[in-house]
Specification:
- This protein is an alpha/beta fold.
- Helix content is about 40%, strand content about 25%.
- Strands 9-10-8-7-6-5-4-1-11 form a nine-stranded mixed beta sheet, with helices on both faces. Strands 12-13-14 form a three-stranded antiparallel beta sheet, with no helix packed on it. It has a three-stranded antiparallel beta sheet with strand order 15-17-16.
- A hairpin with a 2-residue loop joins strand 16 and strand 17.
- Helix 1 crosses helix 10.
- The protein is globular, with a radius of gyration of 21 Å.
- About 40% of the residues are buried.
- The model has no long low-confidence stretch (mean pLDDT about 95).
- The structure holds iron/sulfur cluster (SF4).
Length: about 375
């Protein structure tokens, strides 16, 4: 399988009150130094066996990668192409926030070599966007998608978040209908996760905002997957749907036991049975690269059992589930013999489906994925 290349861009125009990613406020000077460092890290990539390796995806994630100038994106793609054997038909994704998007920039990103845009829309309701601290409006998001289309993008993904403060099931349905009206090729639907010190938690307490009951969240999820299927999308992962043939090839590497290299602060890599992570701080990253020091920390070899656990854990997130024969060939283990007893109650409850050689979660099982997947850990 070819490699995926991930480039982390840790800058945002403002910080959303629920966000736990590795990011900070945009600063032009630091951004310039960061792009230079990232270029250097890619070109200087000296990981055994990685230089010249075949790659078929490049993913600019963040943060807000669309805050970079198109010429900077072009330069980083060039660095990837000159360091790795990037396939001519590679999927090249740019995560984009609607507020940073203009028709001119979309043309620029397309000319730079981006062929897939992933918009962080989160909601088509202005009141919900405001509660999340997002700085775009629903109209701006719609306009941004139109601009991307006008610039020639034919592979667009939208992210929506469900189970937002004060969101009723009818509000969520309205969001999904808006998404279907706009008609992206791909969509990711995530449940809002509130990490312990999220400012949004305090705001919720202050303003008296609440989350809908768990049963409503389950209903939102199940309803949206059915509605999207009726609209021509296929669910291929717990949180992801796509039109035929337009799944995220890059993200599939994470779920299909693949290999990828991450560049930039906080980026993770998994290759040749090892995993490592770059330093998280943007300043530290730039300084280390400037001084010719290593940025990778926390390197560890992944033993066979760890790799197997992860393959099971991530593979079951896919709608097609796991091919147990493939797992047996790769890891020399009979998954059913090892985990069958622990899985049986979930099978009896209709949450897991075993139709040899495949093992998968039912849609109801996807709602309880964390509990079920714990069987493998
Ligand atoms: S735009 Fe995305 S990465 Fe940036 S603060 Fe908001 S949620 Fe976090």
């Amino acid at each position: 399988m070819s490699l995926g290349l991930y480039l982390h861009i840790p800058f945002c125009s403002s910080i959303c009150n629920y966000c736990n990613f590795n990011r900070g406020l945009f600063e032009s000077g630091l951004k310039d130094r960061y792009v230079t460092a990232l270029d250097q890290e890619i070109r200087g990539s000296r990981v055994a066996g990685s230089s010249g390796a075949p790659a078929d995806t490049i993913f600019f994630g963040g943060g807000t990668p669309s805050l970079l100038e198109p010429r900077e994106i072009a330069e980083l793609i060039r660095a990837c192409r000159e360091t790795f054997d990037v396939r001519s038909d590679a999927e090249v994704t740019l995560e984009t926030n609607p507020e940073t998007s203009t028709l001119e920039r979309m043309h620029g990103f397309r000319d730079a070599g981006i062929n897939r845009i992933s918009f962080g829309v989160q909601s088509f309701r202005d009141a919900e966007l405001k509660r999340l601290g997002r700085i775009h409006s629903a109209d701006r998001a719609r306009e941004a998608v139109r601009e991307a289309r006008a610039a020639g993008f034919d592979n667009i993904s939208l992210d929506l978040m469900m189970w937002l403060p004060q969101q009723r099931t009818s509000d969520w349905r309205e969001n999904v209908e808006s998404l279907i009206d706009i008609g992206p090729e791909h969509a990711s639907l995530y449940l809002l996760e509130l990490y312990p010190n999220a400012p949004l938690k305090e705001e919720m307490a202050r303003a008296g905002w609440s989350l809908a009951p768990d049963d409503d969240a389950a209903e939102m999820y199940l309803w949206s997957m059915e509605r999207l299927e009726a609209a021509g999308y296929r669910q291929y992962e717990i949180s992801n749907v796509a039109r035929a043939g337009l799944v995220s090839r890059h993200n599939l590497k994470y779920w299909q036991d693949g290999e990828w290299l991450g560049f930039g602060c906080g980026a993770h890599s998994t290759m040749a049975g090892a995993r490592w992570k770059n330093v998280s701080s943007t300043e530290d990253y730039v300084t280390r690269i400037g001084m010719g020091e290593a940025v990778a920390v926390d390197r560890r070899e992944l033993g066979r059992d760890t790799r197997l656990e992860e393959a099971l854990f991530t593979g079951l997130r896919l709608s097609d589930g796991l091919d147990l024969e493939r797992i047996a060939a790769r890891y020399e283990v009979d998954v059913w013999a090892r985990y069958g007893v622990a899985l049986q109650p979930f099978l009896d409850a209709g949450l897991v489906v075993h139709a040899a050689p495949r093992l998968r979660l039912s849609r109801e099982g996807m709602l309880l994925a964390n509990e079920i997947l714990a069987v493998f850990v």
